[in-house]
Amino acid sequence: VSNSEIFVVGTSQAVAPAAVRERLHVDIDDIYEALDAYVSGTDLLEEAVPLATCGRLELYGVSAKPERAAKLLTRLLQRHTGVSPELVLEHSYVLRGPQAVSHLFRVAAGLDSVVHGEAQILGQVRAAAHDERAALWKGPMLHRLFDAALATGKRVRTETDIGRGGASLASAGLEILRKEIGNFSSVTALVVGAGDTGALVSRLLRKAGVGRLIIANRTADTAHEVAEPLDGEGITLEEIPGHLSEIDLAVGAATLSRHVLTPEMLTMSAGDAVSGPLRL
């Protein structure tokens, strides 16, 4: 009989402010590299699936020694980010057994999101479960867990009104802007990131009637791919400074380990601005 137990180590908007989450950010590629480098040679972790979104960073695992495994993963986070052990412990959580299972179900259902019932998180959970790299780490326990969580998230949205209107953090933020700005037709908007979140924000801005839409991404091809159907412009992250003086609204929708907009860049662009104040 296996004594292995499911657990999750993570941080999210529920326990950490944005400034702390930025410091604790780790690229998903680096997470898998760390698993291969530091964990694969031990018997502490039998299965693992990381889940990284703009609001959370979690690693679901299976171990016969979940407490020791969680401590190892916490130390890896400290080592990779340089954040003090005290700060990591203060703004993270470790859940085991039924609590870990229930947590993923809540996440997939949108109950742990800033906007309850937001639709995007279900796709992010699905993407984490189906990531080809996860196939090397995901065993039968996490396979069943993620399948059940995805089914639960879908059922919640089908049988309840929680997802009515396709709520998302992006749509909620846009509604606030609409009340402040009014007509978007004269607005030039910059969306940083062309992934799922960036594409969603871009579609919402175009639907709202934004005058000019610029999408910046690490790779130009992806930026153009998202921008073209929306009658937008695609640029690379390095090209952003050259456009700042034209921008009225900038939306961050990328998970990056460096700052794309710095105070110095914003100060320099303010003197050349051709419109009003820049809203971030």
UniProtKB/TrEMBL annotation:
| Gene Ontology terms describing biological process | protoporphyrinogen IX biosynthetic process from glutamate
- Molecular function terms in GO for this entry? glutamyl-tRNA reductase activity; NADP binding
Q: SUPFAM superfamilies given for it?
A: Glutamyl tRNA-reductase catalytic, N-terminal domain (SSF69742), NAD(P)-binding Rossmann-fold domains (SSF51735)
Pathway field of the UniProt record reads: Porphyrin-containing compound metabolism
Q: Which residues form the Quinate/shikimate 5-dehydrogenase/glutamyl-tRNA reductase domain?
A: 176-269
Q: What residue stretches are annotated with the Glutamyl-tRNA reductase N-terminal domain? A: 9-160
Instruction: Name the UniProt key words of this record, in alphabetical order.
Output: NADP, Oxidoreductase, Porphyrin biosynthesis
InterPro entries, per the entry: 4pyrrol_synth_GluRdtase, 4pyrrol_synth_GluRdtase_N, GluRdtase_N_sf, NAD(P)-bd_dom_sf, Shikm_DH/Glu-tRNA_Rdtase
Q: Which Pfam families does the record associate with it?
A: GlutR_N, Shikimate_DH
Protein name according to UniProt: Glutamyl-tRNA reductase
Q: Name its species.
A: marine metagenome
| Source species taxonomy | unclassified sequences, metagenomes, ecological metagenomes
